[in-house]
Design brief:
The complex is a heterotrimer of chains A (about 325), B (about 550) and C (about 290). Chain A has three domains: about 120 residues, Beta-grasp domain (Ubiquitin-like (UB roll), Roll); about 130 residues, Orthogonal Bundle (Fumarate Reductase Iron-sulfur Protein, Chain B, domain 2); about 80 residues, no CATH class. Helix content of chain A is about 40%, strand content about 10%. Chain A is built from 15 helices and eight strands. In chain A, the strands form two sheets. Chain A has a six-stranded mixed β-sheet. Chain C folds into two domains: about 120 residues, Glutathione S-transferase Yfyf (Class Pi), Chain A, domain 2 (Up-down Bundle), CATH 1.20.1050; about 150 residues, Rossmann fold, CATH 3.40.50.11810. In chain C, helix 9 links the parallel strand 5 and strand 6. The chains are: A alpha+beta (about 325), B alpha/beta (about 550), C alpha/beta (about 290).
């Protein structure tokens, strides 16, 4: 079966084939990498062939100058993550027949990361963030006697296996919307790894970890967009790990942040009236004594008033609100 | 640039990183050179598990015997003893480092059965054990702050006055060649799967470590012992872990029979890999295959076991063949998987070339002899990685720094420049490699004979000549993969010659070497290792080494 | 067609124009909307992450109330849709969890049998109300308008809870609707991305930059307005637009319409009836293009 691949070429030495067509700039915030030149190739492959098959065929028989990282071909090494038709995927797991849109498939490095050459992205930000979460076990003392493993129940370890499936391909970071806008954000991959160590019962640094991950750039800089969960080829669900980290951090007492205040304000409002009171939610989340940030929200508050969009000053409870209060009393946890 | 270290490790897989970690712990200034990011190393593809006689009622002697029998008595028993005796401590160490091994209900590490083992002693993490170990080790490397030259491609070892003193490597991201000087070098560059087509191995497994050591003067041993894994996915050749059979899976022919009953009535599907591969090949050749494959059936294991213990192969069968293992059996066939042979070392990883150590798949200690048991390779990498790290660090203390190496750097620069300048001759490296790999698959596969092997040798040598004229299709400096691929094909060609020559020389069948013209094992004449030394443009020099026997006298090998 | 109607908190708070518009189009769409006046806030995902059990119970209560009314549970907010779908999935897939929740809400007089289907109005348009009915109700073709769809994360991801694997067409309903109403749908990468609202209180500038960038991209591609099925997105895209423009140092001035407002216009309702004069970013410019006056 015939397929057409459009490869996003980038060559720091400036050598391009005459047929490579200049691409348009990426819309912000996806504009960290320069626009590419797209070179089209045609391949003839079996109908179940994947994008990587096409790239290898191109590299071996048509154009040896196409640079692409690849090794295992079977979705375990994580080398071949790239943007395919505008979203991050593993090339070895992406069937050409499924990805062909308007007769072609477009591949390129993700524009939120710098590019080295052609399909080889500069993964330095990815590895820096990995290192930043202290991704190693600091074994609890006392260590078990020699020749003995830590005795922990299998059930405590089983849910960590989800993160152990991570192959560090970078698909999550490549499509992370928060990272695209904020390069200080540790990102889904690093935070999922952070959860794996924070929740490991054998680790001695849990409390320090949670404190560090609660700092700016950490767990509270995630915008909950679920792109990482959607794009992860291994079912790691990084966002879910971040949410678990958030709960762990708050439960451990790291509550001096907007994230905790926001959750508390939400819970308070729902508990008292059954509904969200936006009037108080914003100021409560920001923190009453956080004058600077409170002032920042004033202009938009005025705009809302002017447009007649201010919620009622007297926030009414819903009928039957006692039910809600009872539910909170029963399973409210720290929101009781 | 010229860089100086005490110990330089080539390869950042399990063996390489374990060696580097150990060398660092023993005070050496150590650096790792790796052509891919450490966690992209092929160790990540190992699935089933790692062996150790850690459990109650198990003994290292039992593990050692299984290994030696599995090797068809070609393994050096003193080295096997070291590996099996130290395995339990190494497993526990990895658990302390953070690996999330499978645990029983009582919180203690649990095991699964594996091929050729007299009792279950394979510790595992789902079916992603290699990945789990590799990541944990990488995390420890980060913690220890070991220097890694990432995406640096080694082009030549540096030998000075008969000792290995470092290497020249190409920094991919800039295109610059650098000289790394060392007091000791540890070769842990992994396997050579791309020598065969198909193979379970990654594209990066191109025999770099074998060829570099060989060209530097270290001997290669047992190169004919190429393992064909019994269950590789039809079509792609991807690995379907032995754990599928360890958990109770069946191998079926076209008649729906568990045919292993005929070949290994006791161990059935858990006989040693060479036995299984041969059996499958015979079934297929005798018309009881399905399109050149047999079937792996795990349906009876149930959804829970498959999702918890075999998730990766379930995903693979679904992704690449559209088959749901829970509902259907999957077609598999023997595929090239592992090289038992390699750079000859002792039990401390030392090669006969002073200053050069080797560990992992590239090394031949030999603990695997004629056939490797499943889950022994992961063990091999960490035990002998550790040994070579420790011993090379000690060795390095007694060696003075060198100021040489400039000449090698300049000659490598010239060599690469010439290679890049070669005009297009009509051939590509990819085409050459495919011809080579297809030849190896057809003539030097599960079953071999004189005529086929001679034909293969002729082909390999002819390809070698053609190789000298093939141009590199990319003249750029930055991240030139066409250039590194050209060098990799050169490595493969060197390896190929040693594999075929050794196979020709060994006139018997033992372990993975099955010759239809010499179908029996012949201890009287062939209980020895075949060794090859590089002689440049001349034919390699062939010699023998005895097999070290300690406790276990060779017996008939049945499963 | 009867539906159990969950308006969400925001349409009764900071986005009252949404509530008004939604009710105004019920009749042309043939919807009898039985409002769940006693159902609690879904928690918007915030409660779910801090206390999954609590969120299971609160949403279980809502699901049970809808079940008692019969018919689907219709939402008009992507976030409500996402949260309710997730908790519905949690309860439907784990009998022991459902039992626990029923024990809690049982004391409040309700029991969830696990049969409620949660559907956003956007989905119901195509799957239950039907294109023919919509076409029949159109009185004003919005020809000449270039409209950029903005879905909101919670109605697109994760695919499994939202039925997007079985019904991938749900990912294109906004574009289809825009076409149906006679306007041109603007194609731009921001359509499926995040408005930044969840981060507004954690990292204000980055949150506003996120939404602002999408508006900018749509504007550069010629959009006259954005339409969104989520009032939380609306809060960030419209309510905070002047601030977003300040953060980006770029002019925006792109009005943001709620889904029911767009439908209402096409059904011949006046902009005033749809409270299109109660937005932070004036809608006048877009309306004038189709000769409507606010």
């Amino acid at each position: 079966m015939k397929f057409t691949i459009e490869v996003g070429r980038y060559n720091p030495e400036g050598n391009y084939d005459a047929s490579a067509v200049a691409g348009t700039a990426y819309p912000p915030p996806w504009d960290k990498a320069p626009p590419r030149r797209y070179q089209s190739y045609n391949v003839d492959l079996p109908e179940h062939a994947v994008v990587l098959d096409a790239l290898i065929a191109i590299r071996e028989y048509q154009d040896e100058s196409v640079a692409v990282r690849c090794a295992c071909r079977s979705a375990i090494c994580g080398s071949c993550a790239m943007w395919i038709n505008g979203h991050s995927h593993l090339a070895c797991k992406s069937k050409l027949a499924e990805f062909t849109k308007n007769g072609k498939t477009r591949v390129e490095t993700p524009p939120s990361m710098p590019v080295i050459r052609d399909l080889v992205a500069d993964m330095t930000p990815f590895w820096q963030k990995h290192l930043a979460v202290k991704p190693w076990l600091q074994g609890k003392k006392p260590e078990p006697p020699p020749m003995e493993e830590y005795r922990v129940p299998n059930s405590a370890m089983e849910e960590l296996i989800q993160e152990v499936s991570c192959i560090s391909c970078g698909c999550c970071l490549m499509d992370c919307e928060s990272f695209a806008v904020n390069e200080n954000f540790l990102g889904p991959h690093a935070l999922a790894k952070a959860y794996r160590y924070a929740a490991d019962p054998r680790d001695a640094l849990t409390k320090e970890r949670l404190g560090e991950y609660s700092a700016p750039g950490g767990i509270w800089d995630c915008t909950h967009c679920y792109e990482c969960v959607t794009q992860c080829p291994k079912g790691v669900a990084p966002l879910e790990q971040i949410l678990k980290l958030r709960k762990m951090a708050v439960d451990a007492g790291f509550t001096h942040n907007a994230g905790t205040r926001h959750a508390d304000a939400f819970a308070d409002s729902v508990k008292h009236s059954g509904r969200l009171n936006e009037l108080t939610l914003l100021p409560k989340s920001v923190g009453f004594f956080n004058i600077v940030d409170q002032l920042k929200t004033l202009p938009s508050a005025f705009n809302m008033i002017r447009a007649g969009k201010l919620p009622p000053i007297i926030h009414k409870s819903i009928p039957g609100v006692q039910r809600i209060k009872n539910i909170f009393a029963r399973v409210g946890g720290r929101f009781k | 640039m010229t860089l100086d270290h005490d110990v330089v490790v080539l390869g950042a897989g399990l063996a390489g990183m374990r060696a580097a970690l150990e060398a660092a712990r023993h005070g050496a200034n150590v650096a790792i050179v790796t052509k891919v990011h450490p966690i992209r190393s092929h160790s990540n593809a190992a699935q089933g598990g790692i062996n150790a006689a850690l459990g109650e009622g198990d003994s290292w002697e039992s593990h050692a015997f299984d290994t030696i029998k599995g090797s068809d008595y070609l393994a050096d028993q003193d080295a096997v003893e070291v590996m099996c005796r130290e395995a339990p401590a190494d497993i526990v160490e990895f658990e302390h480092m953070g690996v999330i091994f499978y645990r029983n209900e009582d919180g203690k590490l649990g095991t699964r059965a594996f091929g050729g083992a007299s009792q279950a002693r394979t510790y595992f993490v789902g079916d992603i054990t290699g990945q789990a170990l590799l990541y944990t080790l990488y995390d420890q490397i980060l913690k220890a702050g070991v220097k890694v030259y990432e995406e640096w491609f080694a082009t030549s070892f540096y030998v000075e006055e008969g000792a290995c003193r470092g290497m020249v490597a190409l920094e991919m991201i800039t295109g610059e060649l650098h000289l790394l000087r060392a007091k000791a070098v540890i070769d842990a560059a992994g396997g050579l799967g791309r020598l065969y087509e198909p193979s379970t191995n990654a594209l990066i497994c191109t025999g770099d470590g074998y060829a570099l050591a060989y060209r530097a003067g270290a001997p290669l041993m047992d190169m004919e012992m190429v393992q064909f894994h019994p269950t590789t996915l039809a079509g792609s050749g991807f690995l379907m872990t032995e754990a599928a059979r360890g958990e109770g899976g069946y191998l079926l022919n076209s008649l729906g029979e568990r045919f292993m009953k005929k070949y290994a009535p006791n161990k059935m599907e858990l006989a040693a890999r060479d036995v299984c591969s041969r059996s499958e090949t015979i079934e297929i050749a005798e018309g009881r295959g399905i399109d050149g494959n047999v079937l792996l059936d795990v349906r009876h294991l149930g959804k829970d076991v498959i999702f918890k213990r075999l998730p990766q192969i379930h995903e693979m069968a679904m992704d690449y063949l559209g088959i749901d293992l829970i509902k259907e059996p999957v077609p598999v066939r023997p595929g090239m998987h592992y090289q038992m042979g390699g750079v000859k070392t002792d039990a401390d990883g030392a090669t006969p070339l002073p200053g050069l150590y080797a560990a992992g798949e590239v090394a031949c200690v030999s603990v695997h002899g004629g056939n490797r048991l499943g889950a022994n390779s992961l063990l091999d990498t960490i035990v002998f990685g550790r040994h070579s790290g420790k011993v090379s660090a000690a060795y390095a203390k007694g060696v003075a720094a060198t100021t040489g190496g400039d000449q090698l750097l300049r000659s490598e620069q010239a060599r690469l420049k010439d290679l890049l300048a070669r005009p297009y001759s009509g051939e590509t490296h990819a085409g050459l490699r495919l011809e080579l790999a297809t030849t190896m698959d057809q003539r030097v596969g599960v079953f071999r004979d004189q005529a086929g092997l001679e034909d293969a040798l002729g082909k390999v040598r002819a390809l070698r000549k053609r190789y000298d004229n093939v141009a590199v299709g990319d003249k750029g400096r930055i991240f030139n993969q066409a250039l590194t691929f050209a060098l990799e094909v050169g490595f493969l060609l060197d390896c190929a010659e040693t594999v075929v020559m050794s196979a020709l020389e060994r006139k018997e069948s033992r372990g993975a070497q099955s010759r239809t013209d010499y179908p029996e094992r012949n201890d009287a004449e062939w209980l020895k290792h075949i060794v090859l030394h590089y002689r440049g443009s001349n034919e390699p020099a062939l010699s023998y080494l005895p097999v070290t026997i300690t406790q276990w006298k060779p017996e008939a090998r049945t499963y | 067609m009867k539906v159990a109607f969950w308006p969400g908190c925001v349409s009764k708070g900071a986005c009252p124009e949404l509530y008004v518009a939604a009710n105004a189009i019920a009749e042309p769409l043939g919807l009898e909307m039985l409002e769940l006046t006693e159902a609690p806030c879904t928690g918007a995902g915030v409660l779910s992450e801090q206390n999954p059990e609590l969120a299971d119970s609160l949403n279980g209560l809502t699901l049970a109330m809808a079940e008692a009314k019969g018919g689907a549970l219709m939402t008009i907010c992507s976030t409500c849709q996402g949260v309710l779908s997730k908790h519905n999935h949690r309860l439907k897939s784990d009998p022991s969890r459902l039992e626990k929740v029923n024990a809690t809400i049982g004391d409040q007089g309700f029991r969830y049998g696990g049969t409620t289907e949660v559907k956003h109005m956007l989905w119901m348009l195509f799957e239950d109300i039907g294109i023919d009915r919509i076409k029949a109700a159109i009185k004003v073709k919005l020809t000449g308008l270039k409209i950029a769809p903005f879905y909101g994360c919670y109605i697109l991801r994760p695919a499994e809870y939202l039925g997007l694997i079985e019904r991938p067409e749900r990912k294109t309903y906004l574009e289809q609707l825009i076409g149906l109403l006679g306007a041109e749908a603007v194609e731009y990468s921001g359509a499926t991305k995040c408005c930044g609202f969840p981060m507004l209180t954690f990292n204000r500038d980055k949150s506003l930059a996120m939404g602002g960038n999408h508006i900018l991209e749509a504007k550069d591609k010629g959009a006259d307005l954005l339409v969104t099925p989520c009032p939380l997105c609306h809060l960030n895209l419209d309510g905070q637009q002047p601030d977003a423009a300040r953060v980006l140092k770029k002019r925006l001035d792109v009005p943001i319409f709620h889904l029911p407002q767009l439908l209402g216009l096409a059904f011949g309702l006046s902009p005033k009836e749809l409270r299109l004069d109660h937005h932070v970013v004036p809608t006048r410019g877009a309306l004038e293009k189709v000769e409507l006056k606010v």
